Amino acid sequence: MALMLFAGSGCARAATLLVSNEMQTHSNIPVFVTCRPTPELSKSVPLGQKMLIDIPSIAGDNEKAEGSTQLPHTECVGTFYTKKNSGPYGMWFVLYDSDKDYCKDSCSIVVKDYGFYRWNNNKKTWDLIPPRFWLN
User: How many CB atoms lie within 10 A of CB 123?
Assistant: First the structure.
């Protein structure tokens, strides 16, 4: 399954997000990936499946042309149980952020029973993505 997001104008390089659902003990818990900005995309990643998402990132300094339009900030988050909404509660994991340096061209994410992990190419290990919370 592939998802393509496009900008109306300007140059941008695409980042690729590969999410693999490898939960075992808690296999009955749904996993979602939600990417914003508008149009919002939210997809379920079924147990044992992988989802590939191609995400446009903000044009790099050497890619900006006079009069070109930059793409808006893009963020993809992972959640358990339900998709992330704008409500004031819940827990989510930032899988991709166009303003951060941890995923320039591609991100490999694996979902295990107790969290989301991002491949760290420098250390050659899976790093636990810290959860973020919104509380009432």
Answer: 8
Report d(CA 3, CA 102) in Å as an integer: 21
Pairing state between β 50-56 and 2-4:
parallel
**Under 8 Å between Cβ of 76 and 38:** no
> Hey, CA dihedral for 50, 54, 57, 63, is it positive or negative?
positive
Kindly report the pTM of this predicted structure: 0.73
* Strand blocks (E) in the chain: 2-4, 14-21, 31-36, 41-44, 50-56, 75-80, 90-97, 106-112, 115-120, 125-128, 132-134
DSSP 122: T
pLDDT band, very low/low/confident/very high, at 36 (cuts 50, 70, 90): confident
